[in-house]
Amino acid sequence: MRAYRPSAEFPRHLEELYARFPFDRSLADDPISLVRPLAVDLRHAEVAGVFASTLAIGNTTAIRGAVARLAGLADGDVAWLVSPGHARERARRLASFRHRWIRGDQLDYLARVLETYYRHRPSLESAFVEGFTDGGFAGGLDELSRVLRADALRGRLGPPPRGYRALFPSPRDTAASPCKRLTLFVRWMVRDRYPDLGVWRRVPTGELRIPLDQHVHWIAYHLGLTGRRTRSWAAVEEVSEALRRVDPLDPVKYDFVLCHTGISGDCPKERDIAVCGPCSVRPDCRLWRGRTVTT
Closest Cα partner for 180 from 109, 102, 233, 137? Predict the structure, then answer.
């Protein structure tokens, strides 16, 4: 079967979608809206970003609620979670925390990992860049995953809680996870354009990969940016490369727009001319290709 591809006009259509998108409307529904006020410096940005991206499971309302609860437990200063001398009180405060299948003991262990890491290194960017230098983006994500899993620290920290390591998959694992949450974290750290934080300076934005959540994957598949029906690291690479052909210097700038086009209902994921009619990428969508639109 011939692979589905977007139209030749797709780059122009996508840029129009981006230019017309109501960022301020959707920012309020995105977890980064809670991360931005907490990111007063590099350390705060990383700590808030790691915890918020780790909690990015489920719908945006639940995610934002979980991030807000966690910040409240830290009295609004997320860096408190990784500051030395708070181990006992931190464990007490986090003990009853729950978000989907994520538990407080897992977040307490993550805080211990970060506290130990920051004793010796100033930023998680260093870990990512080490892997990135030798293995590209997937290598950087793999090294970041190793740090957060505490692969080199288990002798000092003890075994992680049940289910902890699964929170930080690597694209090099046999399951070839799309690694949506870690990829999202790196996007927040690297891009210096709204709405991202831009606190990492050694990773080129052109090398970023798309955080492939269910909304982005559905839209990307129906626009012909990937032929893969399931989310995987291979699908991440295909979608990212397709977007890089549109904007080589900042391909994942479209992530927020594609994601919230799905979240907001601007994409109904079915043919509905009342909703789809004004959409600038409708001519590229496989649901509409070859169909005559009548009003």
Answer: 233
Task: Report whether 257 contacts 266 (CB < 8 A).
Answer: no
Report the alpha-carbon distance of residue 243 to residue 209 in Å, rounded.
10
145 in Cβ contact with 110 (< 8 Å): no
**Sign of the C-alpha dihedral computed for residues 139, 178, 184 and 83 taken in this order:** negative
For residue range 40-97, list pLDDT tens digits in order. 999 999 999 999 999 999 999 999 999 999 999 999 999 999 999 999 999 999 999 9
Q: What SS3 state is found at 102?
A: strand
Pairwise CA distance, residues 56 & 185, whole Å: 10
pTM for this predicted structure: 0.95
- Is residue 183 a contact partner of residue 190, using CB atoms and an 8 Å limit? no
Distance (Å) of CA 294 to CA 44, 265, 273, 280: 53, 22, 9, 16
- What are the tokens at 273? 């001319």
SS3 (DSSP) at 279: coil
Dig out the tokens for 142 from the structure. Answer: 């793999």
- Residue given tokens 């405060």 in the structure block: 93
Residue with tokens 């590229």: 284
Which candidate, 164, 159, 145, 150, places its Cα nearest to that of 113?
150
Phi-psi region of 131 (alpha: psi -120 to 50; beta: other; left: phi over 0): alpha
Question: Per-residue b/e over 204-221, b at no fewer than 16 CB within 10 Å?
Answer: ebebbbbbbbebbbbbbb
Where do the domains of the chain lie, and which CATH numbers do they carry? 1-27+206-290 (1.10.1670.10), 30-203 (no CATH)
- What the block records as the tokens of 134 is 């030798």
CA angle 227–184–25, rounded 5-degree value = 95
